[in-house]
Write a structure and sequence with these properties.
Order of helices and strands: HHEEHHH
Largest sheet: 2 strands, antiparallel
Distance between the termini: 80 Å
Radius of gyration: 32 Å
Helix content: 40-55%
Length: 110
């Protein structure tokens, strides 16, 4: 059987006014904010141990607050990033090459 595309005249005869498409069903998982995570960490003792065996109290005492670790979003420009990394690598390679040469400019032979 070959599927047939209906003619426009046939489609116009059908009444689509009363038909409603079903809404898409998606599951939205809410991502917790830093504030929620901080509050939960200090409020619930369940976060004080990992797998019921590892004590995390020392770690939670030295965690940095949100305002100290938050950074502004910075857009990356591929061309700029590539040029910057390439330049740094070339500079490092040139320095290594200079270190491997004798003071008179002749390469060392072991």
């Amino acid at each position: 059987d070959i599927p047939v595309i209906p003619d426009l005249e046939e489609v116009q005869e059908e009444d689509f006014v009363l038909q409603v498409a079903a809404p898409p069903s998606i599951q939205v998982n809410r991502v917790m904010t830093y504030r929620d995570l901080d509050n939960d960490l200090m409020k619930y003792s369940a976060f004080q141990t990992l797998d019921g065996e590892i004590d995390l109290k020392l770690l939670t005492k030295v965690l940095a607050p949100e305002h100290e670790v938050r950074e502004d979003d910075v857009g990356w420009d591929w061309d700029h990033l590539y040029t910057e990394v390439s330049s740094e690598l070339l500079t490092e390679w040139d320095q290594l090459q200079m270190e491997n040469e004798d003071p008179v400019g002749q390469p060392r032979h072991p």
